[in-house]
Amino acid sequence: MPRKYEQDCVEECKKLYLRYNGQHHETIAKELSKRWAKFPADRVGAWAKKYGWDKLLLQRAEAELERVGWTNAQRAYNRVKKVVDRLEKKVESFDETDKEDVELLKLFHNYCSLEISALQRLDAERGSLEAFVAHWEWQMNIVAEISPRAAKELVAISEEILARAQDYFSGKGS
Asked: Are 136 and 68 in contact (CB under 8 A)?
């Protein structure tokens, strides 16, 4: 029979799981074993699945992207994608004899077209200086959490990195 753990163990595991971005289960298990003897690494993944911690990681990543500033194309795509996902669930039980369902299907079709268009704009923008800068800021926040020393070193050369990116995206660089 599997060992029962207290709620504070689950909460501590969740905290570490989020800190390590859903990775390094062995490290998390070692940390937890300091308080809860022989904590098994496979329990980390099992709890993450059971309690939906990957959804929390996704929500945190989306919030972080929102904080550092998504590009206009990313914002547009995400708004359209959310509507498409909601409509898709409703369309799954489509009844062709129901007028409301027929209208819903038309709406779904229109939003799918918008999604394709927004995705094309997003793909076109990915290779832009704006997208590079947004991604750079996001990465800097992650590096600062992991290693403040490494973040300081990157900040020291960030002007050079951004200048090279500007040259690259303006066609001056290789």
From this structure: no
Domains held by the chain: number:
3
Q: What is the full per-residue pLDDT of the chain (174 aa) written as tens digits?
A: 467 888 999 999 999 998 888 889 999 999 999 999 889 999 999 999 999 898 888 787 777 666 655 667 777 788 888 888 888 888 888 788 888 888 888 888 888 888 888 888 777 766 778 778 877 887 888 888 888 888 899 989 989 998 998 888 887 655
Q: What is the rounded distance in angstroms from the CA atom of residue 78 to the CA atom of residue 119? A: 9
The 8-class DSSP code of residue 51 comes to H
Containing structural domain, residue 108: 70-125
User: Does any domain span residue 134?
Assistant: yes
**29, part of any domain:** yes
Helices (H) and strands (E) in the chain, counts: 8, 0
What is the pTM for the complete model shown? 0.43
CB 143 within 8 A of CB 101: no
Nearest 5°: CA angle at 138, between 132 and 143?
120
Block residue for tokens 């329990």: 43
**Residue 63 placed within a domain:** no
